[in-house]
Amino acid sequence: MAAVDYKDIFHKAKVGIALNDPERGVIGKVNERYAELMGYSPAELEEMEIKKISADGPKFDQEAAMEKIRLALDGESQQFDWLFERADGSQFWGEVVLERTMIGEEDCLLAFVRDITERKQYEQALEQRNQRLNEFAGVVSHDLRNPLNAASGRLELAREECDSAHLDAVAQAHKRMGDIIEDVLSLAQAGKSVVEPEPVDLAICVQECWRSTDTDDASLNIADGTTVQADKTRLQQLLWNLIRNAIDHGGKEVTITVGSLDNGFYVEDDGPGIPDAARQRVFQSGYTTSSDGTGFGLRIVKQIADAHGWELGITTGNDGGARFEVTGVQCS
């Protein structure tokens, strides 16, 4: 077996690498990619303190860098994000890994740097989007719920003073307004991007949703189970809306089946199904064929699927009903 040429690997690596000199607190020898990232020559970087290539602020100063190095020297590998500043003053985010290792007979501290600026910008954009959704939800909750609660209170007082069929119509209108507000809030939450999914047992999740739903005489069949990577709360919301949709449109005695696919899962019923011409429109906000529906349920399902990076499709079930397939899911 040919001997490993560490120098060749070092200089040709696509990731920035530095052989740090902890005793002097300088960057040390670097490869071409590291020099390219920083905008300095390898010779300039070799004697340069880490703070010279770092953004201003206590989070990225020499002391903060040396603390990471001390931990790595003690045998605790370090991985963290760092804001660098290039020779021309421009900045970029780097993912840094510090590893203490032996190269030949030499005890070395290696620093690996990878440019993650695009990822950071994406994360910041998601954070701003989620913040806007939170603000919107707050406005809807406060500015619409409060007047509705006041109106409902006045309605109860009116009932005590007179008996009129018109009051029942008002109560029904209040209920519909309340349902719309709840669905709009759910829609705002559903649109938030999923950052930290966790393993969720699909069968258990379905059963929990079933217990929290007014199922009338409907029946549930779990064909098989799987574990999916998801935000559990929003997965429950997705399943609850699909179950509720099946009951609302499939009849009180509808049978709902949930099962796994190679790359996801499905929810189907034995109701009348969804015509081909309507299958794209059902995911639009406000679309409904029911006089009691708000038209937001399936839109919420679509938003939750999109937030996970999943695909959502409609086909015909085994018994002619509607079958919703969620694919692109990480399953185990």
UniProtKB/TrEMBL annotation:
Record-annotated PAC domain positions: 78-128
Database matches in Pfam families: HATPase_c, HisKA, PAS_9
Keyword Transferase: yes
GO molecular function, one term: phosphorelay sensor kinase activity
Domain of life: Archaea
Domain Histidine kinase: 139-327
EC numbers, comma separated: 2.7.13.3
SMART domains: HATPase_c (SM00387), HisKA (SM00388), PAC (SM00086)
Keyword match Calcium: no
Keyword annotations of the record: Kinase, Phosphoprotein, Transferase, Two-component regulatory system
Class of enzymatic activity (EC top level): transferase
InterPro entries registered for this protein in UniProt: HATPase_C_sf, HATPase_dom, His_kinase_dom, HisK_dim/P_dom, HisK_dim/P_sf, PAC, PAS, PAS-assoc_C
PANTHER family: HISTIDINE KINASE 1, TWO-COMPONENT HISTIDINE KINASE
Name recorded for this polypeptide: histidine kinase
Protein source organism: Haloarcula pellucida
Source lineage: Archaea, Methanobacteriati, Methanobacteriota, Stenosarchaea group, Halobacteria
